[in-house]
Amino acid sequence: xxxxxxxxxxxxxxxxxxxxxxxxxxxxxxxxxxxxxxxxxxxxxxxxxxxxxxxxxxxxxxxxxxxxxxxxxxxxxxxxxxxxxxxxxxxxxxxxxxxxxxxxxxxxxxxxxxxxxxxxxxxxxxxxxxxxxxxxxxxxxxxxxxxxxxxxxxxxxxxxxxxxxxxxxxxxxxxxxxxxxxxxxxxxxxxxxxxxxxxxxxxxxxxxxxxxxxxxxxxxxxxxxxxxxxxxxxxx
Length: 236
Prior knowledge:
This protein is an alpha/beta fold. The protein has helices at about 40-50, 70-80, 95-100, 110-120, 125, 140-150, 170-185, 195-200, 220-225, 225-235, and strands at about 1-15, 15-25, 30-35, 55-60, 65, 80-85, 155-160, 185-190, 205-210, 210-220.
C-alpha cells in the first residue's frame, strides 16, 4: 500500500527553484532514500513534505489524503514526522522535556508509558533523563531527536542526514536503529550523506540534482548507475 505519494512537487525560495517537478512514493513499511550532492534539494524536499516550507506546485498525499495545504501539526497527527538535519533539540531543556515535546499533538493517556519505552530503547538517555540536553554527545542527541519523533507515534519518519557528524561507531548504530524501526513497522524516508549505507538499507532510491530527479528505482539499480557518480562529481 502506498503511504506517501508526491506528484510534480515544486519548492521555491524567492526566484530560486529548490525542488522541481519531483515525483516520489513510499509504501507502508518501506525504506526509501533520497540521494544527491549538497544543494540538490534533498532537505527542501523533506521540509515541504512536512509542511515547514510551502509547495509552490504539485500534490502531497499521505495515507490516501491530500495534505498539500495542511499545517505541520495536522501532518504530525496523521503520522508524518521529520527528524531535521542538525537534530534541533532544545539544549536548555532536560532530556525528559525534549522527549515530551514530541508528544505535543497527543491527548491520550499513554504518553508516560511511551516515554519509558523510549528509555528502554535508548538506555543512555534513561541515565540522563534529568540532565540538560546540551551535555549529550552528538550520537546521544541524535537518539534524543529520534526518540522525540517516535513519541508522535509516526507511521512514516523522515530522517535528514542522521549520521552527520557522528563517530563511525555511532554511524553503524544509527543504521542498525533505522533497520530496527523499519522492522517494527515504521516506513522511513531517508536523506543521508553515507550513500553506500543508505543504498544497502533502503529498498528504493531517488537521486536528485539541482532539485530534479535524475533516476529513481530499486536501490541496487540506482547504485550501479553512472548517474550516481556523475551527480556527486557535478558532471551533469
